[in-house]
UniProtKB/TrEMBL annotation, chain A:
<dbReference type="GO" id="GO:0055085">
    <property type="term" value="P:transmembrane transport"/>
</dbReference>
<dbReference type="InterPro" id="IPR000515">
    <property type="entry name" value="MetI-like"/>
</dbReference>
<feature type="transmembrane region" description="Helical">
    <location>
        <begin position="78"/>
        <end position="102"/>
    </location>
</feature>
<comment type="similarity">
    <text>Belongs to the binding-protein-dependent transport system permease family.</text>
</comment>
<keyword id="KW-1003">Cell membrane</keyword>
<dbReference type="Pfam" id="PF00528">
    <property type="entry name" value="BPD_transp_1"/>
</dbReference>
<feature type="transmembrane region" description="Helical">
    <location>
        <begin position="243"/>
        <end position="266"/>
    </location>
</feature>
TrEMBL record, chain B:
<feature type="domain" description="ABC transmembrane type-1">
    <location>
        <begin position="70"/>
        <end position="282"/>
    </location>
</feature>
<feature type="transmembrane region" description="Helical">
    <location>
        <begin position="12"/>
        <end position="30"/>
    </location>
</feature>
<dbReference type="InterPro" id="IPR050809">
    <property type="entry name" value="UgpAE/MalFG_permease"/>
</dbReference>
<dbReference type="GO" id="GO:0005886">
    <property type="term" value="C:plasma membrane"/>
</dbReference>
<dbReference type="InterPro" id="IPR035906">
    <property type="entry name" value="MetI-like_sf"/>
</dbReference>
<keyword id="KW-0813">Transport</keyword>
<feature type="transmembrane region" description="Helical">
    <location>
        <begin position="204"/>
        <end position="226"/>
    </location>
</feature>
TrEMBL record, chain C:
<keyword id="KW-0472">Membrane</keyword>
<dbReference type="InterPro" id="IPR013611">
    <property type="entry name" value="Transp-assoc_OB_typ2"/>
</dbReference>
<dbReference type="InterPro" id="IPR003439">
    <property type="entry name" value="ABC_transporter-like_ATP-bd"/>
</dbReference>
<dbReference type="GO" id="GO:0055052">
    <property type="term" value="C:ATP-binding cassette (ABC) transporter complex, substrate-binding subunit-containing"/>
</dbReference>
<dbReference type="Pfam" id="PF08402">
    <property type="entry name" value="TOBE_2"/>
</dbReference>
<comment type="subunit">
    <text>The complex is composed of two ATP-binding proteins (XacJ and XacK), two transmembrane proteins (XacH and XacI) and a solute-binding protein (XacG).</text>
</comment>
<keyword id="KW-1278">Translocase</keyword>
């Protein structure tokens, strides 16, 4: 490259960096504002000048978590999310193992049966599901917000795609050597699928943690409620006086942190897994 | 002729599949079938079920309020899809073109994938608040009266912006991955031919990543219909005067404010058919674009 | 160690017949190579013996036991794959012992002893703590062999085990496999598409095509007495030339007659059956040579391409409308377009039926060498 071309290239790159930084700033800005407000005593900011961080971060978070018992909602969300992630992972691993490594009649029909559930997201069935879970005596329990989530077409599909990319000769060797299917799953497939398992776990966690509609309708005891819905309760409880908004923003930041932390920590595995999902 | 299918014990296969099948049947298929059944009843928790035939559907067809909600949802979802994908495509292209330091920008724009819709709703409710919102005074200085608690179109726009914001991350994840898979040689050929950056995006990249774009159109449409429930619930409650009363919110209110389960089931069935048509559309479209590889 | 017998074995996949009713007897301790073009059914045959596929029809016996319906793990076979099939997350040692430990048929001491012996033989003792990703292709294949060896199976099954290695390493490993076999004398069935491998390794070579066995023989007999046109053309590189000829006879002497040549055929079985008819004359490239002077069996041809190979000069020639190749002396002064006189080593001629491809006549058949393959010597 001539020096002129190098200069042109550098100017272009600089422009791109400025643009990208601006976009990134705009996308992060609302949450930065929320974070700043969560450090102030009164949550009223009506101009950019009001945005200077306050000194009440510690007391705000303590009040939200302990005083207003937001820890309870967080804990419920954790229990729900971890139970769904672990349960779904086990159930889906077993299903994917069968779908890839077993030969049996009507296999394609079974796979289609699982895939077809993609057409049945919570919003199209929450009304009858509400009746069903209530009739089963599961209404208003932890089971109501975990068990119905355990079957997952997406997770089975991602695992299946990944298993199919593992050379068949590995399972053939195992078969000739007398390694059983569960041992093959545990000692070969799981260790070989670590990145994908982490990736799907993050996807499942984010999905479960962010559930709003179903817990809203099926859980009516506050002590069992999850953080998403708890935020609104927090708004109600704190709505007396001007501190309300800093409390709501404090709760919002608390609710955002767990999935955000997982995304930042495991972004490599997450991106890898998303690439599989689309195939 | 090598094969993955080396295990043949059918009983084992059945046992291992059982959890997925039972949960799918009980909590996914059965409620759907039941929704169809229930849609022929007038059903409420208190009074028991009364068979009314097609009455619920007749009511739906004749309801201008419901028709309005349908049109509103379609408009809203369309705006979400167009808005999200336009922004995300520009952002992804920007990041793709950067040589050094991509990773940092990527994290800074994909994080809203993890953002809970409820949090997105509350944060936007706060920063765009008609009275105490941080930008309100600046916008009003431009001569626009911020009053979306009572102004329908404004409420629609504010919820839309929140919805787009939350969905950018998900789209950028897929778009940057797809752009990253475009063969380097094509980029170089385009550059040698003197094709401008914008032309390269529109004439070279977009056609190549079209399978991904089709996939995202479907995912974003479903998000526009369902994923924005929390935002509507927390920001506008469907108002003012039904201006943000999208189908899923309308359905929620029918079932859990008016306790009309039969009528709500009929609305569920309509939604189910809509999702089915969407998925079928994706299936057909991605078939057509299959030759681009994916 | 055991012998393996396939009787009338057939395998169909969704109506496509991959193996068409083959019979094959593999003696105890033999090293049998199975060779053929891709899709000929050789891998399927191996997988049928391993038990990875179930035969649609026919029986497979090991020793005196019918194993047709027996699970692979109960057949006491070990298999080595082209892509090594090593578990990438396990060390070499764990790769070697994983199957044994899972099967639970071996005690820990036994496993330790076997691993020590096998790794010493294969010279991989100091690689045992590495993972496959840290090993070269050759080292990986040694580990894969180690995994097969430690189980001390009745039969080794190898599916193109050297095909992923580069040419030099392939030759080296080939010699080592031969050495291993002479040491352990375990019955080995080795599938390959590479005829050199098949000929150098096998006491006995099975040539397959289109789901059928074409011929089973010792390497040299396969080369000298191909039973079908397919075997004649598949074994040997460049392939045997096939020239369409008429067979003329004056009652005692026979000649293969082409448009531009008449080649006398030494007396032998089968000649009288084709006299007066048509046949394909099979001539290997090394059985033709450029003549110093014309004689009764020489004929003229035009050189179309010359390929100096160093140790010989490969000529592509044309006579009439028939094309063929031959190995000439290196540094022979010919160029494309030259006309040359060629002579034929008449003791190395073959005739094939133009319709069925079956061999009719081998010029050397008058005195076929007695079969004294290494199979017998190992017994």
């Amino acid at each position: 490259m001539t020096s002129e071309r190098i200069r042109r290239f550098e100017t272009e790159q600089l422009t791109l960096h400025v643009l990208a930084a601006t976009v990134a700033f705009l996308i992060v800005l609302p949450v930065v504002i929320a974070a700043l407000v969560s450090t102030k005593r009164a949550g009223i900011v009506t101009s950019i000048g009001d945005l200077a961080p306050g000194g009440h971060a510690l007391s705000n978070y303590r009040r939200a978590l302990i005083g207003l018992e937001f820890w309870r909602y967080m804990l419920n969300s954790f229990v729900m999310s971890v139970a769904v992630v672990v349960g779904k992972l086990i159930v889906s691993l077993l299903a994917a193992l069968v779908i890839v490594y077993y030969r049996f009649p009507y296999k394609n029909a079974v796979f289609l049966f699982i895939l077809f559930t993609l057409l049945l997201p919570v919003p199209v069935r929450f009304v009858p599901l509400y009746r069903l879970t209530t009739e089963l005596g599961m209404g208003n329990t932890i089971f109501a917000i975990t068990v119905p989530y355990l079957a997952s077409a997406t997770t089975v599909f991602i695992l299946r795609q990944h298993f199919l990319s593992i050379p068949a000769s590995l399972v053939e060797t195992a078969k000739v050597d007398g390694v059983g299917p569960l041992r093959f799953l545990w000692s070969v497939l799981v260790p070989m699928s670590r990145a994908v398992l982490v990736g799907v776990s993050v996807i499942m966690f984010v999905y479960t943690w962010n559930q709003y509609l179903w817990p809203l309708v099926i859980i009516n005891a506050e002590s069992l409620q999850v953080a998403q819905v708890g935020l609104n309760l927090l708004r109600g409880q704190a709505s007396t006086g001007e501190v309300a908004w800093s409390m709501v923003m404090t709760g919002s930041i608390l609710t955002l942190l767990p999935p955000l932390a997982l995304l930042v920590l495991f972004r490599r595995q997450l991106l890898e897994t998303f690439t599989i999902q689309q195939k | 002729m090598s094969t993955h299918e080396v295990f043949t014990d059918r009983l084992q296969a059945g046992v291992l599949l059982l959890p997925t099948m039972v949960v799918s049947l009980l909590f996914l298929y059965y409620p759907t079938v039941r929704a169809i059944g229930l849609s022929f009843y007038q059903a409420s928790l208190a009074r028991g079920d009364v068979f009314v035939g097609l009455e619920n559907y007749r009511r739906l067809a004749g309801s201008t309020e419901y028709l309005r909600s349908v049109l509103l949802s379609v408009l809203f979802a369309t705006c979400v899809v167009v808005g999200v994908m336009a922004v995300a495509l520009c952002v992804s292209f920007l990041i793709h073109e950067i040589e050094v330091g991509k990773g940092l920008y990527l994290v800074a724009v994909i994080w809203p994938y993890a953002l809970p819709p409820a949090v997105a709703g509350l944060v936007f409710l706060f920063i765009a608040h008609p009275n105490i919102g941080i930008f309100t005074s600046y916008i009003e200085a431009l001569g626009i009266d911020v009053n979306w608690f009572s102004n329908g179109p404004q409420a629609f726009v504010v919820v839309l912006i929140a919805a787009v914001w939350k969905q950018i991350g998900y789209n950028v994840i897929f778009m940057t991955a797809a752009l990253g898979n475009v063969p380097e040689s094509l980029t170089e050929t385009a550059e040698l031919d003197g094709v401008s950056r914008t032309q390269r995006l529109l004439r070279v990249y977009v056609p190549i990543i079209s399978p991904t774009l089709v996939f995202l159109v479907i995912m974003n449409t479903i998000y526009g219909f369902f994923g924005t429930f929390a935002m509507v619930d927390l920001m506008t409650k469907g108002g003012p005067a039904g201006a943000t009363n999208i189908l899923i919110y309308d359905l929620y209110r029918t079932a859990f404010q008016f306790y009309e389960f039969g009528f709500a089931s009929a609305k569920s069935v309509v939604l189910f058919v809509a999702v089915g048509l969407l998925m079928y559309g994706q299936f057909r479209l991605s078939d057509r674009y299959a030759y681009y590889g994916g | 160690m055991t012998d393996v017998t396939l009787q009338n074995v057939r395998k169909e996949f969704d109506g496509v017949v991959a193996v068409k009713n083959i019979d094959l007897q593999i003696p105890d301790g033999a090293f049998v190579t199975v060779v053929g073009p891709s899709g000929c059914g050789k891998s399927t045959t191996l997988r049928l013996i391993a038990g990875l596929e179930r035969a649609t029809d026919g029986t497979i016996q090991m020793g005196n036991e019918d194993v047709t319906a027996v699970e692979p793990k109960d057949r006491d076979v070990a298999m080595v794959f082209q892509n090594y099939a090593l578990y990438p997350h396990m060390t070499a040692r764990r790769n070697i012992t994983f199957g044994m430990k899972s099967a639970g048929d071996f005690s820990d001491e036994e496993i330790d002893r076997q691993v020590r012996e096998a790794t010493a033989v294969l010279d991989i003792d100091d690689l045992l703590d590495r993972k496959p990703g840290e090993l070269s292709g050759g080292e990986r294949q040694r580990v894969a062999l180690g995994r097969a060896l430690v189980r001390d199976p009745e039969v080794f099954l190898m599916d193109e085990p050297l095909s992923n290695l580069d040419a030099k390493l392939r030759i080296k490993m080939r010699a080592e496999l031969a050495k291993l076999h002479s040491e352990f004398e375990t019955t080995t069935i080795y599938v390959t598409h590479d005829q050199t491998e098949a000929l150098t390794l096998g006491d006995r070579v099975v040539v397959m095509n289109d789901g059928r066995i074409q011929q089973v023989d010792s390497p040299q007999r396969l080369y000298d007495y191909p039973e079908t046109r397919f075997v004649a053309e598949f074994i040997g590189d460049p392939a045997m030339n096939m020239l369409a000829v008429d067979i003329s006879s004056d009652g005692t002497e026979y000649e293969a007659v082409g448009p531009t040549f008449r080649i006398p055929l030494p007396e032998g079985d089968g000649l009288e059956t084709v006299a007066g008819g048509q046949a394909l004359l099979g001539v290997r490239p090394e059985s033709l040579s450029v003549a110093d002077s014309a004689d009764r069996s020489s004929f003229a041809a035009e050189v179309t391409v010359t390929e100096p190979l160093g140790d010989s000069l490969l000529l592509e020639c044309r006579t009439g409308d028939q094309e063929f190749k031959l190995h000439a002396e290196p540094r022979t002064a010919v160029e494309p377009g030259d006309r040359v006189a060629l002579t034929v080593e008449t003791e190395r001629l073959h005739l094939f039926d133009p319709q069925t491809g079956a061999a009719i006549y081998h010029a050397a058949a008058a005195q076929p060498p007695e079969e004294t393959g290494p199979i017998d010597s190992t017994l």
